[in-house]
Design goal:
By secondary structure, the protein is of the alpha/beta class. The chain has 3 domains: 43 residues; 126 residues, Immunoglobulins (Immunoglobulin-like, Sandwich), CATH 2.60.40; 297 residues, TIM Barrel. Strands 2-3-4-5-6-7-8-9 form an 8-stranded parallel beta barrel. Strands 1, 12, 13, 15, 16, 17 and 18 form a 7-stranded antiparallel sheet that branches. Helix 8 links the parallel strand 7 and strand 8. Helix 2 crosses helix 4. The longest helix is centred in the N-terminal third of the chain and has 39 residues. About 1% of the residues have low confidence.
Length: 482
């Protein structure tokens, strides 16, 4: 019997209702399952984090690339090498951190370095590498203020010496942190030389950058020398810093630091402007220039000539603005002794009453203070402040580790570029932890910063206890609800 039109319409309407009901059911089921999964992670366990007190420490920290350095001199081509560190001094107790090595090439002023001389250079760097030190390296032809008498007679010979020494230096990039100068000038300080024209300086520095490994920082004696060599007053930015270019590698060394109003010839008398970048600027403008530049490239040197500019309060102010990370431990003794006799005064500071010298030593370079730690749901958060004068110019590996009461270890890398932890700012680190996958129980939480080049742990300026997993920053309790 034929089905009437009315019956067919009624049948189709009923089917549509059923289809809609099925669709609605499946949609609600999906929403329920998603909600169940979302809440399940949170409902079936409870995490309770108890942080350790983040107490700041005023202790001296043995961290790499920073601090007061000792200086050692070597003459290639001499019969023997002295001042090499003994193998027995390589343990942490006796190890010197950052050192400056001056390597004199005067015996080869007008000839290539011999194989024996290059072997001596290798011996020197190998000894300091085994010692665990970080090297500031300066090649020169003069120690007596007579560079014009002892330097090569041609620019080409200096370039050749750069080629030869770079082959050795590049084997020790885990040891050589930076190189000072371009081989010329009295004591290698880029003055009183036949090769200090803008053209020669530019040629020498660009060649040195070309033949040395990009991981090694370079440096010039004055800010205006950098601007002339690069033909620009531009400073690295977060986008261009550490990219291996000459601009990202070229820092400063100031061996007239705080000596006079112009740092004994380091600065000039011209006001900074876009048109005057090839002139030495007045002190205030050069300090502002360094304040921006040296967040990304190293700055250091030695202080000189006891005067009000290097009285403690003023010295701290300018060293901070210049982002100084290393200073000569022996010069100028009059200034260093003045700092040792002065006391740092700030009742709100953990450094109150410490000698000025010790205060400065503890702030040369980077110094990280963990301010607080917290757990927000499954996100673990660490806030730390860099209270030092500069950043760490090498990127650190960061890791959070959970160790259960029965010794099971869970480690998680933290993503953050420590080279941009600018002095005076707070870095906020965060990592999502898979808490739902952890068994119930108690876990000690450790934080660790490591320099991957040296395989050295970086010490924070806190009083946390320490073991092989890092610094203990808290305890995590996981309880299951099923």
């Amino acid at each position: 019997m034929a089905v009437s039109l009315l019956e067919r319409l009624s049948f189709m309407k009923t089917n549509r209702k059923k289809s809609f009901s099925y669709l609605l059911f499946f949609l609600l089921l999906l929403v329920f399952l998603a909600l169940f999964a979302f809440l399940g992670i949170r409902s079936f366990y409870r995490a309770n984090y108890m942080p350790e007190p983040c107490t700041e420490s005023a202790d001296e920290l043995s961290n790499p690339y920073i601090g007061f350095y000792h200086m050692y001199g070597y003459v290639l081509g001499s019969d023997s090498l002295s001042n090499l560190p003994a193998a027995s001094d390589s343990d942490a107790k006796n190890r010197q951190g950052i050192v400056m090595l001056e390597v004199n090439l005067q015996n080869f002023s007008n000839e290539d370095l011999s194989d024996s001389a290059l072997s001596q250079l290798d011996t020197i760097l190998s000894a300091w590498q085994r010692h665990g030190s970080q090297v500031i390296l300066r090649f020169l032809y003069d120690w007596d203020g007579k560079a014009m008498e002892t330097e090569p007679q041609s620019l080409e010979q200096i370039l050749r010496h750069m080629d030869q020494t770079a082959e050795v230096v590049n084997r020790y990039t885990d040891c050589v942190f930076l190189m000072q100068g371009i081989f010329v000038g009295n004591c290698g300080e880029m003055n009183n030389s036949h090769y200090m024209s803008d053209e020669d300086c530019t040629t020498l520095m660009h060649h040195l950058a070309e033949v040395t490994d990009p991981s090694v920082f370079l440096s010039v004696r004055t800010p205006v020398q950098r601007r002339k060599i690069l033909d620009s007053s531009e400073r690295p930015t977060k986008e261009t810093a550490f990219d291996g270019s000459l601009s990202s590698r070229l820092g400063l060394f100031n061996d007239g630091m705080l000596g006079t109003a112009n740092d004994t010839g380091t600065y000039g008398d011209t006001a900074a402007s876009a048109d005057t970048y090839r002139s030495a600027w007045v002190r205030e403008d050069e300090l502002s220039f360094q304040n921006e530049l040296c967040n990304f490239v190293p700055n250091g040197g030695e202080v000189t000539l006891d005067n009000p500019l290097n009285d403690l309060a003023h010295a701290i102010q300018d060293l901070s603005r210049m982002h100084v990370s290393y200073l000569n431990s022996e010069h100028d003794p009059a200034v260093l002794d003045k700092w040792k006799a002065a006391a740092y005064k700030d009742k709100a500071s953990v450094f109150n009453g410490l000698s000025g010298y010790d205060y400065i030593e503890r702030h040369l370079g980077y110094r990280y203070v963990i301010q607080d730690t917290a757990l927000d749901s499954s996100d673990f958060q660490i806030r730390l402040e860099n209270v030092g004068f500069s950043v760490c110019y090498r990127k650190l590996d960061l890791q959070l580790t959970l160790v259960s009461s029965d010794g099971e270890v869970f480690s998680f890398p933290i993503s953050s570029d420590s080279r941009f932890w600018i002095p005076g700012t707070t870095a906020e680190l965060s990592i999502s932890l898979p808490l739902a996958r952890l068994t119930k129980g108690s876990y000690t939480v450790y934080f660790q910063m490591t320099d991957p080049v040296l395989q050295r742990e970086i010490l924070p300026a806190n009083t946390f206890s320490h073991d092989t997993h890092g610094f203990s920053i808290g305890t995590l309790e996981i309880s299951k609800l099923y």
